[in-house]
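Q: I'm writing up a methods section and want to include an example of the input and output format. Could you take the sequence below and give the corresponding predicted C-alpha cells, formatted cleanly so I can copy it straight into the document?
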Amino acid sequence: MNQSPPVAPSALPEPDLSGRRLGDYQLLRRLGRGGMAEVYLAEQLSLRRQVAFKVL
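A: Here is the clean output for your methods example:
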C-alpha cells in the first residue's frame, strides 16, 4: 500500500478567524501566531474597547 506520510499539525494551514464573533468579542484581525496560539485584535462589544484576544 502506498500511504502518504503523516502531516504534522503545525504544517496544516490555520484558518484566519478575523471577522468572527466569539461570545462578547468581535475578532478584527490576526496580530500574530506561535506554536500553540494565535493573538487577535478584538473588540469587546459590551464595553466598546479593543483588546488582545488569544486563541489556543
